[in-house]
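Field guide to reading this record: the first block holds the primary sequence, the second block holds the structure written as C-alpha cells, and the final block holds curator observations. Each block starts with its own label. This record concerns ABC transporter ATP-binding protein, catalogued under organism Candidatus Flavonifractor merdigallinarum.

BLOCK 1 — SEQUENCE
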Amino acid sequence: MDTGTVSALEFENVSYQYPSEDFDIVDNLSFQVEPGSFHCIIGVSGCGKSTIFRMTNGLLTPKHGVIRVDGASVAGRKGYCGYMPQKDLLFPWRPVWENVALPLEVKGGFSKQERRAQAEAALEDVGLSGCGDKLPQELSGGMRQRAAFARTMLTGSNLLLLDEPFSALDFLTRISMQEWLLSQWQKHQKTILFITHDVEEALFLSQSVLVVASTPIHTLTDIPVPAPVPRDRSCLKDPAMVELKEQLISMLRKQVGV
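BLOCK 2 — STRUCTURE
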C-alpha cells in the first residue's frame, strides 16, 4: 500500500476474546486496506471472520489494540461504516422506503419528506424505482438485498462491511447480485470488505482475497486476484484464476483436515 495514503481501515495489534472462551479468537492482528478497494475475507466457519466486522463496527470492543477508519480510532465514534448482515433485517411492517431511510431517521435532522426523497433516490440507484411503498414481503430475495444495500449506502459511510449478504439466495439470483454489486462498487468507489465462504464468489468480486489461514487469527494472508476491473464471469475460466481457486480451496481444507 502507498505509505502516503491514509488507510480506509487499519487494525494495529488487535485482540479479542469471547467471555465463554479461554483463548483470543483474534490474536494481535494487524492489517490495513486502501480507500476504494474491494476485498473478500474467506475462512472456515467459526474462524472469527465476523468478529473482525463486529469489532470494526463497534458491536464488540477489542481486548487490546487499535482499530482506525480513515486514520482515526473508531472508539467512541458513530457513522464511520455501513454494515450489511446476511439477513436483510427489513422491518416487515414498514414500507420499503421507510426501511431504507432508517439510517437518516437514526441520525436525525431530516424531515419525513427529506428522508423519503433520499430513500427513493437510493432505491432508484439500486434498480428498485417504484418499490418504495411496497412491503418487504412483496419483494423477491434479490430485491430485498438490494433494498438492504440501499439502506447501507444511506449511512453515508465510505467503508461498507458486507457479511455474507448473498448466501441465502438461489444460485442464479446470487450471481446476478454479484455482478450488480461490482457495478455499484465501480460507480460509487466505496471501500468494501465482504465475508464469504464461496471461493469463486471471492475471486469474482475481489481485487485481493484476505484469507484466514488459521484460528486464532494472527494474520490475514493477502492474495491478489489476477483479473482486471471491470470484469465479467468469463474471467473465472482463465487458467490463472482456476489455479488460484484450487490454491484457496487447499488452504481452507488444511484448516479442517480434509
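BLOCK 3 — OBSERVATIONS
DSSP finds eight helices and ten strands in the chain.
The longest strand covers residues 9-16.
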